Each structure stands twice: as structure tokens, then as C-alpha cells.
């Protein structure tokens, strides 16, 4: 059985994938994870997860062009220029 | 179709692209990765055998603990690296079979005997220094899972170099006999160290550089090693057994050309300790077989 390890280096930081190992059950996974990833106090916490329990999603098609959800979906430059001209606040050339 | 895909893939890795386990990769790339990474894993495992011989002979309790910790690190690296190979398609049990049968190789430096505690210090200091240069160049490997594992490996190797240098310094500042043990070890290990980074094949002809598995040519790695460590060796009053060794006006290290046929012979199982080490590995595997059977029911 393969277990994936996610480790946190300092409190408050995100958990980052560290590697994987074989272990027959949770008790061995606990012991191995401590030995492999924390014996020099290089981690403050570990998440140890059976690989088959991980749901991996790695394709994110954007069929409907949903750009309005992102910052690159807005181009305000031209409108801002027009609005400033209308208000007479455009920077003098 | 497949050729076009391979060409696109090559272009992607050459531009610095990184590949994950489930991504498409060319068969040649996968084969080269497996062979290279497997040899690295083998070397971590075989590399503990010369050191293991010294656990019971370490001069102090502190040195014994430090050496044991180093050995634990190296075995841990082996398991991490074999996991990378497994995810590429070759199970760990087959890696161990091929290692024992001589079908796969391990690094030249682990085919030599250790004669004194001086060897232990010189191995931890200089062999690990040579290894960390190769491993740091793998942090940029096009195969991302391997590159990620190297971060942990390099971090732990830095302790080993310090442990080795400290061991050497303790002997250098000790009795004349202790100094002599270090000098003898440096003399003994110089040839294997010069072999370590391989033949000076130009980087643009090196298939491992071509696929961006390695990011550095062999000679670049050796120059970096000489640049970093020759001054550290000489400042201790030690001598190196190569009268031609020196830096030329262009800042390039010159040295007596190592015997490359000897390197080939050593890594194909004809080194002074090759067969003894493989026999020991085979014996250990047979002895602990019941443990893996008990722990991993699917392996039984």
C-alpha cells in the first residue's frame, strides 16, 4: 500500500507534498512518516494519505470562456480613459 | 504521429518543461529515466555497506550515532528513489533482483573496500561532496517527482559532508599516526573520486543532458568538485597523488587522465569489493524476506 506524505515546515504554512512510501497499515504509516519526514524536526505536522484515497483533478477546460471570473477578464484601460476625459481629470500630456 | 509527439516532448523538456508521472512521455525518455534513477537508488543502498562495517568500530559513541544516522539517511534515500522508479513502471522487488544479479549497476565508489577509520571520514566528506554536486544538478531535472525527492536528499547530504569533514579534522589535529591514516585514505580514494563524475563526454553529446534529466555535463561536475574541494584538502597539509593536478591560466583544472577502462570494469562488477558487497546484499535480502512477506501480504 502506497502512502503520500504532505508536510508542513512551520506553523501557518501550507502543507506541501514531500514524497511517498510503502506501509501495510496506519500504524506503520505513522512510524515511517515520522522517521522519513520529521526525525530532524524539519516538519511540524504531516498529512499521510493512502494514495488511492486521493482524488486527482488535473484538467480544467474553459469551454464557456468564463473569463469574467478572473482578473484577465477585465480590460478597463479604454473605458477609464474615456471616463477621465469626460470628467476633465485626464493627466495633461 | 508518435515522432511528432516525441519531437514536441523533447522541445518541451529542453525549454525547461517539467514532466509528472501521469503525463505522456516518450519511451526512450522513460527507459533512460528508469535506468538512471534505478542506478541512483542502487547506489544509495550499496553505499551503506562500506559504512556499515564501521558502526561497531567507530572510535566514540558520538561517532557511532552519527554514522548510524547517516546510514539511516542513505537507506531512506534509497526507498524514496526506488518509489520514483516504481511509479515509472518498475517494481522495487525487480530493482533489488536486478541489483543482485548484476543486471543493473551502482556507483563506482561503492565497489571499493574501506581499510581504516580514515576512509570513513574521507568517504563522508569527499565522496558525499562529489555526490551532492551531481544531485544538486538534478534539482532541475525535467522529471519533476525525481527533482522533488532530490531536495530532501541534498538537504540530508549536507549533514554528511560536515560529519565527514569533522571526522577528518579530528584525525588531522590528532597524532601523526592519525594524520597518516587520513593521508592514506585520500591517496586511496583519489582515483575513484576522479572517476566519479564519469568520462568527459561533451554535454551536447550526453543523452542525459539532451533529455534534461541532468542539467550539467560530467566534466563540469568534476571541475566544480576540484574547484570546491582541492583547496580544502591542500590547506590541511594533505597531498594528492597526481603531479599534474593544477589550475591553468584559463581557470580550468588539469589532471592526469584517469583510466576510463578501469572505471568500466569496476562498475560492471569487477571492482575490488564488488562481488563481496553483492553477495552480502543477496544474503541480507534472503534473511529479511520473511519480514516483507509478513508486512506486505500482497508481496507474499
What does this structure look like?
The complex is a heterodimer of chains A (93) and B (300). Chain A is α+β, with helices and mostly antiparallel strands and 93 residues long. Chain A has helices spanning 26-38, 77-87, and strands spanning 2-8, 16-22, 45-50. Chain A is elongated, with a radius of gyration of 25 Å. The N and C termini of chain A lie far apart (69 Å). In chain A, 15% of the residues are buried. Chain B is mostly helical. Chain B has helices spanning 2-14, 27-52, 61-88, 92-101, 117-137, 144-172, 176-196, 207-210, 218-234, 260-270, 274-287, 289-295; strands spanning 246-247, 253-254. Chain B has a two-stranded antiparallel sheet with strand order 1-2. In chain B, a hairpin with a 5-residue loop joins β1 (246-247) and β2. The mean pLDDT of chain B is 94. Classes of the chains: A alpha+beta (93), B mainly alpha (300). Chain A binds chain B through residues 1-2, 17-22, 24, 28, 35-36, 42, 58, and chain B through 22, 72, 76, 79-80, 83, 92, 148-149, 152, 155, 295-297.
The pLDDT mean of chain A sits at 91
What string gives the helices and strands of chain A in order? EEHEH
The geometry of chain A reads as: elongated
Number of E-type strands of chain B: 2
Q: How far apart are the termini of chain B?
A: 42 Å
Mean pLDDT of chain B: 94
What topology emerges from the helices and strands here?
The complex is a heterodimer of chains A (93) and B (300).
Chain A: E1 2-8, E2 16-22, H1 26-38, E3 45-50, H2 77-87
Antiparallel strand pairs in A: 1-2, 1-3
Chain B: H1 2-14, H2 27-52, H3 61-88, H4 92-101, H5 117-137, H6 144-172, H7 176-196, H8 207-210, H9 218-234, E1 246-247, E2 253-254, H10 260-270, H11 274-287, H12 289-295
Amino acid at each position: 500500500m502506497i502512502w503520500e506524505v504532505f508536510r508542513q515546515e512551520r506553523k501557518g504554512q501550507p502543507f506541501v507534498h514531500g514524497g511517498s512510501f510503502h506501509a501495510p497499515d496506519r500504524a506503520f504509516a505513522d512510524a515511517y512518516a515520522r522517521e522519513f519526514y520529521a526525525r530532524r524536526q524539519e516538519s511540524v505536522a504531516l498529512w499521510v494519505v493512502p494514495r488511492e484515497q486521493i482524488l486527482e483533478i488535473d484538467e480544467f477546460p474553459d469551454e464557456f470562456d468564463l473569463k469574467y471570473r478572473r482578473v484577465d477578464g477585465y480590460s478597463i484601460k479604454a473605458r477609464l480613459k474615456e471616463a477621465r476625459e469626460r470628467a476633465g481629470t485626464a493627466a495633461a500630456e | 504521429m508518435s515522432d511528432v509527439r516525441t519531437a514536441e516532448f523533447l522541445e518541451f523538456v529542453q525549454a525547461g518543461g517539467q514532466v509528472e508521472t501521469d503525463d505522456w512521455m516518450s519511451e526512450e525518455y522513460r527507459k533512460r529515466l528508469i535506468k538512471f534513477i534505478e542506478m541512483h537508488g542502487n547506489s544509495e543502498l550499496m553505499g551503506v555497506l562500506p559504512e556499515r562495517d564501521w558502526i561497531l568500530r567507530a572510535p566514540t559513541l558520538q561517532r557511532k550515532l552519527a554514522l548510524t544516522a547517516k546510514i539511516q539517511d542513505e537507506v531512506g534515500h534509497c526507498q524514496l528513489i526506488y518509489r520514483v522508479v516504481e511509479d515509472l513502471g518498475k517494481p522495487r522487488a525487480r530493482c533489488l533482483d536486478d541489483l543482485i544479479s548484476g543486471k543493473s549497476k551502482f556507483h563506482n565508489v561503492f565497489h571499493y573496500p574501506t581499510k581504516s577509520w580514515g576512509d570513513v571520514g574521507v568517504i563522508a566528506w569527499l565522496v558525499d561532496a562529489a555526490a551532492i554536486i551531481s544531485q544538486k544538478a538534478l534539482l532541475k531535472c525535467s522529471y519533476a517527482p525525481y527533482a522533488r525527492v532530490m531536495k530532501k536528499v541534498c538537504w540530508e547530504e549536507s549533514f554528511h559532508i560536515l560529519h565527514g569533514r569533522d571526522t577528518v579534522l579530528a584525525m588531522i589535529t590528532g597524532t601523526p599516526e592519525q594524520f597518516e591514516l587520513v593521508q592514506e585514505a585520500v591517496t586511496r580514494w583519489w582515483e575513484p573520486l576522479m572517476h566519479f563524475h564519469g568520462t568527459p563526454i561533451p554535454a551536447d553529446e550526453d543523452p542525459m543532458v539532451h533529455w534534461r534529466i541532468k542539467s550539467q555535463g560530467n566534466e563540469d561536475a568534476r571541475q566544480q568538485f576540484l574547484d570546491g574541494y582541492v583547496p580544502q584538502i591542500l590547506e590541511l597539509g594533505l597531498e594528492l597523488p597526481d603531479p599534474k593536478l593544477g589550475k591553468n591560466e584559463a581557470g580550468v583544472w588539469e589532471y592526469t587522465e584517469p583510466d576510463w577502462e578501469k572505471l568500466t570494469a569496476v562498475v560492471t562488477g569487477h571492482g575490488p569489493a564488488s562481488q563481496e558487497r553483492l553477495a552480502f546484499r543477496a544474503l541480507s535480502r534472503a534473511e529479511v524476506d520473511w519480514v516483507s512477506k509478513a508486512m506486505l501480504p500482497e508481496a507474499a
